[in-house]
């Protein structure tokens, strides 16, 4: 085990050296005191966006002083899924010649929706979606190349959706360059389609990667632009416009929460208002899973990211996980509950909830950065009574023990 101090320990040492309380550092950075506390204790990761706020307050110019020489900042440091090889080949095939009749936009839309349903309903969503993606990318690229006029524009919007699915697949176990490639190609396809809804969707997906790479302010700017495209069309348009507007607010809420910004709740309330006002009570987005239960899922996520396990518990109390309209999101919800338990130092509850997540969706846990962070720490810190169970779960999830 390395003797290097953790990023949280480095923050605490630098804060004490400057004679700052946690409350004072919180005021200087815009983060909450509880966020500072959980970063220092190692129960919350020091994200790049948080480090960029903490660094100046501690007179740190080089973020290496916070992370240390042994920490590598990357989107692709987690275990790789074996299907990445074939998806990478499909993304870099650059088909020069297409022959034969292209699939109609209606047929292609059905294929794209079916692939998204697989992502949301399969326990092994990465394995099954990874098997579908190469063929689906070829179908969509063929349609774009061979169609003309409106059929081509519709095909471009569907190609953007296919790239979005590839981004979801690659997010935690693909090459960083591949993730950015899917973002860029999806945006180019949406812009070429000249479809405001497709452009807004592409911005939503880009915002997640911007946030993950420490560009949260830029992500929020782009999300505001996307809402400007969508909001005027909600009143008279089909429900997909309201679905997109709600999802843009939820993405802004999550982006703010991960920067410790309490205004995340205002964004969440805006999303809730859209869902309750403009969508049927039983509405579930095919690709986004926007719905009333998903609002509650996000509320738990926001509370955890804001370092408030008590609020997370309150928000989770009335949410039956069986109502979450996505196996993948249900697995992630249990991971969020595990994060909340971990913030409170409840090792047994944390292990139990990670086990529930694995039972729902093994691949969601295996490729979840928060789950890996928790398990890595529990392997060395868990009480003796549960250590063997922690080691077993960590081994199944690809965590070195």
UniProtKB/TrEMBL annotation:
Signal peptide residue numbers: none
Gene3D superfamilies recorded: lambda repressor-like DNA-binding domains
Protein name: Helix-turn-helix transcriptional regulator
Domain HTH cro/C1-type: 11-66
CDD domains on file: HTH_XRE
InterPro entries for this protein: Cro/C1-type_HTH, Lambda_DNA-bd_dom_sf
């Amino acid at each position: 085990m390395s003797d290097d101090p953790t990023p949280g320990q480095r923050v605490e040492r630098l804060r004490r050296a400057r004679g700052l309380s946690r409350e004072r550092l919180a005021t200087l950075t815009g983060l909450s005191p509880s966020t500072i506390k959980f970063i220092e204790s190692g129960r919350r990761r020091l994200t790049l966006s948080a480090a960029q706020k903490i660094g100046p307050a501690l007179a740190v110019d080089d973020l290496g002083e916070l992370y240390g020489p042994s920490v590598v900042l990357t989107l692709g440091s987690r275990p790789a899924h074996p299907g990445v090889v074939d998806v990478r080949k499909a993304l870099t095939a650059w088909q020069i010649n297409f022959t034969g009749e292209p699939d109609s936009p209606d047929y292609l839309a059905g294929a794209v929706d079916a692939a998204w349903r697989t992502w949301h309903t399969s326990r092994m969503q990465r394995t099954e979606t990874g098997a579908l993606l190469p063929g689906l990318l070829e179908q969509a690229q063929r349609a774009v190349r061979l169609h003309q006029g409106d059929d081509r524009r519709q095909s471009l919007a569907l190609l953007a959706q296919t790239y979005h699915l590839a981004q979801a697949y690659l997010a935690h176990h693909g090459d960083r360059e591949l993730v950015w490639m899917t973002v860029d190609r999806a945006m180019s396809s949406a812009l070429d389609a000249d479809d405001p809804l497709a452009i807004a969707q592409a911005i939503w997906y880009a915002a997640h990667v911007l946030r993950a790479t420490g560009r949260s302010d830029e992500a929020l700017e782009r999300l505001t632009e996307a809402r400007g495209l969508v909001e005027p069309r909600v009143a008279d348009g089909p429900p997909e416009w309201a679905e997109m507007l709600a999802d843009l607010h939820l993405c802004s809420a999550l982006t703010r929460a991960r920067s410790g910004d309490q205004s995340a709740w205002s964004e969440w309330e805006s999303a809730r208002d859209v869902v309750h006002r403009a969508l049927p009570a039983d509405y579930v987005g095919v690709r986004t899973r926007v719905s009333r239960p998903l609002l509650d899922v996000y509320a738990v996520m926001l509370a955890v990211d804001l370092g408030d396990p008590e609020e997370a518990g309150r928000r989770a109390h009335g949410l039956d996980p069986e109502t979450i309209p996505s196996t993948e999101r249900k697995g992630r919800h249990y991971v969020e509950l595990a994060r909340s338990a971990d913030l409170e130092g409840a090792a047994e509850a944390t292990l139990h909830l990670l086990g529930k997540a694995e039972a729902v969706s093994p691949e969601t846990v295996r490729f979840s950065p928060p789950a890996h962070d928790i398990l890595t720490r529990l392997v060395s810190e868990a009480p003796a009574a549960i250590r063997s169970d922690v080691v077993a779960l960590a081994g199944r999830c690809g965590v070195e023990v």
